[in-house]
Amino acid sequence: MPSVKKDSAVVLVGTKKGGFIFHSPDRRRWSVQGPYCAGMPVYHMILDPRDGRTVYAAAPNPGEVWGPGLYRGRLGSGLALSKAAPKFKEGSGLALTRIWHLEPGLPDSPDTLYAGVEPAALFRSDDRGDSWDGFDALNHRPGRENWQPGFGGLCAHSVLVGPRDPRHLVVGISSVGTFESRDGGESWTTENGNVRAGFLPNPYPETGQCIHHLTWDSAGDGSIFHQNHCGTYHRGPQGGAWTEITKGLPSDFGFAIAADPLHARTAYVAPLVGGENRVPPKSQLAVWKTTNAGRTWRRFTQGLPGPAAYMGVLREAMATDAKDPVGVYLGTNTGQLYASRNEGESWKAMSVTLPPILSVSAGIAR
After folding, report:
1. Terminal Cα-to-Cα distance of the chain (whole angstroms)
2. Pick from 197, 150, 206: which is nearest to 173 by CA?
């Protein structure tokens, strides 16, 4: 197994049949390790940016009859189950089925890890995943009994931790909406102003929006990009209602959105035709980029498949690295993995023979 050199770009890919780790010192020739958790769905896999060496993965635990498991290991080595997975309190009437998203804490909390799970809830560990505590004010919020699952389930799939303040938390739940806390999870507000739910009789309800993915704008001021079932949005540092930025895109539907880590107000999306036909518009896989928080968009297709391309891109299947120029990575539900080493201008296949891709994340080895 080739070692992972310091400062290499690392791309972690969760698939329906295991996790794979690609790494390259120059982003031209890639080595691959895996599969990890072979034969099992790996819903999310990350390289901890705080040390650039710890890998976390969310996959089933065979010892608990395919219940959820949290796996941990060192880059270049194997992964092992942590001592515990998140768990609802006895008597809650809730039973955790899977972990959808893993989110590291801030650099000054090197052992803190958050998990967004199904049925929708948020948990925190302060010992690298060996024990967990839930956020009761969100997980047992009044009215929860009225939450309805989206096509992929009732899942908390987007977890944001404030880049300047760990007490600032944002969670996206489909198909319920966005929730925000500014007091470390003691209280939560719904943050769905101006977000359409076009599939409901009231298209602008307090909750019921189908959030597909949330990501911080790298401005670091609390601004957020948001891909929804019904549009693409941006919210500035002042918070409040979202601004729809769908104009200029070929559709208002898509799952993945990734922010550029080096350039503020810059993000990438991969639009699909719609909820009833989840394939690229005009059967050409394309990535669209904004550099001004969605006022304008550019379309990139060089090196991507099409026409006659009918794959999809799931919510976690796009990522960026922090090298200069920024690398962008895209995975499909038919097993192709693409990379751009010039901020989306052109693309090359890293692999075309993977199992269906559930998640893609990127980091830098330390």
Report:
1. 18
2. 150
Mean pLDDT of 149-171: 95
Cα distance between residue 225 and residue 61, in whole Å:
33
Cβ burial, residue 332 (10 Å; 0-12/13-18/19+): buried
In this structure, which amino acid lies at residue 221? D
Structure tokens at 48: 């901890």
How far is it, in rounded angstroms, from Cα 232 to Cα 26? 33
Do 222 and 239 touch, CB atoms closer than 8 A?
yes
What average pLDDT does the chain have? 97
Count of residues in the chain: 366
Q: How far apart are CA 180 and CA 187, in angstroms?
A: 8
Under DSSP, is residue 355 helix (H, G, I), strand (E, B) or coil? coil
Alpha carbon distance 130, 339 (integer Å) = 34
CA distances (Å), origin 27, targets 2, 131, 324, 341? 15, 36, 11, 7
Q: Is 229 helix (H, G, I), strand (E, B) or coil?
A: coil
Q: How far apart are CA 324 and CA 318, in angstroms?
A: 18
pLDDT band at 1 (very low <50, low <70, confident <90, very high): low
Express each pLDDT in 230-256 by its tens digit. 999 999 998 999 999 999 999 999 999
Report the pLDDT value the prediction gives residue 176, as an integer from 0 to 100: 97
Rg (CA), the chain: 19
- Rounded-to-integer distance, Cα 332 and Cα 226, Å: 20
Pick from 132, 136, 148, 322: nearest CA to 229: 148
- Output the furthest CA–CA distance in the chain (Å, rounded): 56
Tell me whether residue 89 is exposed, middle or buried, using C-beta atoms within 10 angstroms of its C-beta: 0 to 12, 13 to 18, 19 or more.
exposed
Q: Please report the pLDDT score of residue 218 as a whole number.
A: 97
pTM: 0.97
